Amino acid sequence: MTAVDLLIGINIEKISFARGEEAVRLLEVVVEIVRNMGVLGVRGSEVEVLGMALSTGISAYDALYIVLAGKGGLTLVAEDERLRREASRHVPTALVLQLSNQQES
User: Fold this and answer.
1) Cα→Cα distances 101→23, 97, 98, Å
2) What is the DSSP letter of 44?
3) In this predicted model, what pLDDT tens digit does every residue of 54-90 receive, in sequence order?
4) Which residues are CB-contacts of 45 (< 8 A; sequence separation ≥ 6)?
5) 12-23 pLDDT, tens digit each
6) Does residue 7 contact residue 103 with C-beta atoms inside 8 Å?
7) DSSP letters for 50-104
8) Nearest residue to 86 via CA among 105, 101, 102, 69
C-alpha cells in the first residue's frame, strides 16, 4: 500500500483528531507524499498563463493550473466544473472520485 492509497481514504476530521500511533502513521504518509512531490514553477510561463486567462475568461489562478499540468504532462484533478471543462481542452482531467475508484481497481 502506498501513501496515495492511504491518503485517499483519510478524512480531514480524522487527521485533526489523530493520536499516538495513528498520528505518527499519518505524519509518515504526509512526509512520503511531500518527499515524492515534484515542484512546478510558474517562472517563464507568465505570458502563457495570462494569455490563456484572457482568451478563455477563466482566472489567471485557474489558467496557471492548466498550464502547469500541460508542462508537467499531468492530469488536472478538479471538482470545479468550469475549470475542468476548460482544462479538458488542453490536458487530461479527472474528479477526485475517479482517482479513488482507480485506486480500488
Assistant:
1) 26, 6, 5
2) T
3) 999 999 999 999 999 998 888 888 888 999 999 999 9
4) 64, 67, 68, 71
5) 445 555 567 777
6) no
7) HHHHHHH---HHHHHHHHHHHHHT-PEE---HHHHHHHTTTS-EE-HHHHHHHHH
8) 69
Which architecture characterizes domain 46-104 according to CATH? 3-Layer(aba) Sandwich (3.40)
C-alpha cell belonging to residue 38: 515534484
Would you kindly state where each structural domain of the chain is located, as residue ranges? Answer: 3-36, 46-104
State the cell numbers at 99. Answer: 482517482
Q: CB-side exposure of 87: number of CA atoms within 13 Å?
A: 30
